[in-house]
Structure to design on (332 residues):
């Protein structure tokens, strides 16, 4: 796909310049954050396991660029990108991955539970599909309290075959709740390919069953994602209820750290790497005269420093103490 044809969005519909650059920065931050986290994991400096978001950065970035204070984001087992895109501090996420007391969940959650309620990101839930009814709940709260906030629920293609997914979509639809359901269709649920578990072409077709709009977008094109999410957020804020957005994308790594990827070919992986959202967007910004290459390189160096700072912060932070164990477990 060449950059000219990649995004057919008319120029007047493009987000303002500052936002265009901020989206590049966010995507680059998510990518490099996870690449470094992966290295730290391989060196044994980060415990537990990891589900990397590498390849899918345009989805979280394009959607969350439409959100602000008072809006909520929910994620599942692949949550680093969603948290970074909504504005959770890299230091807080890194410290959480290290299991340190300064982490966004005080070191008790780890990779699959990152989130920070002060930034509108509910700590992630690793049960596939379980965040969907909870998203309906935060959207219902916003509607009842008239906060004007919207909720974005991120999930995978596999999640849309869970019972909870259907219940959550239905209740959100019948009550016109301010929620945007964002399916990141990366073609696989762990080792199971999409075609083995769906008789339909697209998850978005299921929106019809609940009487809400369903849209399919190129999830590797941050501008398409941004514009589609913008319309869905406006619709939700305007009291017109949910939208289901299906973003077609690909996870470039294995499902988790122990995945030999025998269920897909190296050729398929290479073809998707050609569609990597970050170099495409970088080239588009330069081609369209939206950014100088030197300015982007400078921004990239700043991001590297931010990540380095987050690692140093996490390493220097204290471990949780035994006395902390019951804190944050029960409501005071
Ligand atoms: C209810 C439930 N069943 C199974 C699992 C194990 N599991 C974790 S991730 C995953 C695959 C989910 O696929 P998808 O929803 O497409 O998300 P992706 O991993 O592709 O981002 C599975 C089966 C789980 N965490 N929860
Ligand atoms: Mg998937």
């Amino acid at each position: 796909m060449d950059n000219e044809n990649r995004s057919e969005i008319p120029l007047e519909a493009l987000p303002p310049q500052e936002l265009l650059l901020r989206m590049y920065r966010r995507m680059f931050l998510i990518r490099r954050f996870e690449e470094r986290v992966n290295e730290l994991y391989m060196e044994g400096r980060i415990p537990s396991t990891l589900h990397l978001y590498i390849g899918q950065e345009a989805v979280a970035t394009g959607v969350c660029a439409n959100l602000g204070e008072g809006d909520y984001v929910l994620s599942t087992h692949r949550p680093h990108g969603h948290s970074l895109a909504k504005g959770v501090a890299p230091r807080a996420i890194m410290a959480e991955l290290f299991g340190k007391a300064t982490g966004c969940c005080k070191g008790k959650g780890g990779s699959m539970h990152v989130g920070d309620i002060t930034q509108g990101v509910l700590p992630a839930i690793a049960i596939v599909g379980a965040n969907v009814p909870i998203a309906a709940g935060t959207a219902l709260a916003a509607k009842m309290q008239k906060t004007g906030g919207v909720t974005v629920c991120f999930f995978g293609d596999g999640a849309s075959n869970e019972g909870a997914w259907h219940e959550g979509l239905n209740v959100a639809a019948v009550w016109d709740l301010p929620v945007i359901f964002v399916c990141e269709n990366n073609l696989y649920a762990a080792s199971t390919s999409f075609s083995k578990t769906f008789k339909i072409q697209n998850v978005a077709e299921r929106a019809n069953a609940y009487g809400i709009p369903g849209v399919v977008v190129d999830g590797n094109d941050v501008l398409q994602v941004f514009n589609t999410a913008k319309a869905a957020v406006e619709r939700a804020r305007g009291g017109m209820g949910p939208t289901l957005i299906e973003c077609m994308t690909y996870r470039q790594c294995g499902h988790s750290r122990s995945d030999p990827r025998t269920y897909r070919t190296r050729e398929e992986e290479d073809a998707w790497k050609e569609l990597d959202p970050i170099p495409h967007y970088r080239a588009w910004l330069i081609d369209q005269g939206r950014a100088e290459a030197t300015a982007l390189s400078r921004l990239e160096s700043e991001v590297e420093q931010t990540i380095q700072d987050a690692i140093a912060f996490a390493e220097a932070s204290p471990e949780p103490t035994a006395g902390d164990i019951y804190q944050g477990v029960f409501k005071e």
